[in-house]
Amino acid sequence: MLFAKPLGDLISQLEKLPGIGPKSAQRLAFYLVRQPEDDVRMLSESLVRAKQALRFCERCQNMSELALCSICSDAKRDQTTICVVAEPRDVAAVERINEYHGTYHVLHGLMSPMDGIGPENLKVRELLARLGGEMAEVIVATNPTIEGDATALYLAKLLKPTGVKVTRLAYGMPVGGELDYADSATLHSALEYRREL
Amino acid sequence: MSLQRLWLSNYRNFEGQEWLPSTGVNLVVGANAQGKTNLLEAVALLSSGRILRSVKDDSAAIRLGEDAAEVLGEIRGPGTELKVVLRRGQRRRAFLNSVGMAKTSDLLGRLPTVVFSNSDLAIVREDAGERRRFLDLELSQMYPVYLRHLSMYKRALEQRNALLKQVNHQRVEDASFEIWEAQLGEHGKAMREYRHRFCGELLVKASRIHDELGSEVLDLAYEEADFGDLTEALASGRAREIHRGTTQVGPHRDDLSISVNGKLARNYGSQGQQRTAALSLKLATIELIQDTLGEPPVILLDDVLSELDMHRREHLLSFVLHTQTQTILTCTEANQAGSEVQKDATIFSVRAGNVEPA
Known about the structure:
Chain A is an alpha/beta fold. Chain A has seven helices and six strands.
């Protein structure tokens, strides 16, 4: 046997994590077993606590501790604007810029028949349910990939009849990027969607 | 555009090899299985991100007993360095001036090449897939936007086909089809515009060259697999396609018909007519790339001289000399290239994975 059984078990658990290969799993396992017991206990407890305490916000479907997440329950946020994203990490990305003051809606994926994902597997019904009343704008912020575009198109078709304004993020050059290193598709869309100075 | 320096590390039978080709004609001479084609293939890899001789995975292109291979090329002119790294069991990676590129196909257009090999005949003789592959490769290296449409189209096609197969065991709403069909329609329409224009421009040049080669009339016509608006054709074909599980309309079903003296070369052409047609297409492509990009592509000739009769061989060689572009020509004997080329060319010999000036 290559490793003592408890170590082998830990390695095979770590290997199941996304982005972790056999070598990284070994390195993490060796690191962990060398740490003080208290630190390891804290890690394992926070894993279990996160799993037990988290649920989907009943409005925006982001990960939340309470029935309503901190953004949905914040009276200072503009509750008439929804930014639709694929994953919880995309909420974090938009929040980091500190300029968007509306709410979010997390789809938890993008449409992809190849992976068996259709609208029924995404939080689309929950989004539609939010539209009654005075919703001013839905900003679709899915990735500019074929699946992101298809999902955006699907949402646009679905939401248009409700009369709400539906917008999509712009395509263009990364700020501070160099023209020479931009991939041609980015440069082409930046050229296509240029604006007058 | 030309290749100034090539560095191979554990690529096929090359352990560590630097090669400094001239900007003119490079005659690479060696017996079979010494590495001539490997050298030429490495240049094509930098040009397209693809390996010429189809391999199941990259392991076949990595030197025996090594984990990784590297091909690096310095391009004359803008001071650009292209690199491709192959690693067993991993995705092939491309780099531009040491910065990783998102996809290896992003290399296309940095070092345009036109490759002549014995498999060119397939463009005329085999099924439509070969002709589409030819169109896609040449258009991609001239127009990065074409490449973008092509890869988006292919992905949307896979998604729609997956949806067609789902219908057999679950209900799928029309709106789910419509979003993929809208994208296929948009990218497919753009692809067809590029292909029509390319075939039209190619015809002007190829028919002239074909006439010079053998006084016969070459004709090209781009043929679409369906009529009218593609998005609508996709929608109306849905019911029929559910049984097959594949999409039957769109540019991935189109063909380029090639005829000689009014007869379809694929079915009715003699081997000689087919070979001449393939040669005309490739030579016309060189001129077209030169017109479009303002510079001729690098010409790669993989052991093609022995397959051609004297007349076609002389025509090809005088075309190459006349184009005055960097050319890499492999052959088993230097005298196959004729005295005129030998006089101008820089000659290298390849033996057991070593290239040196002859």
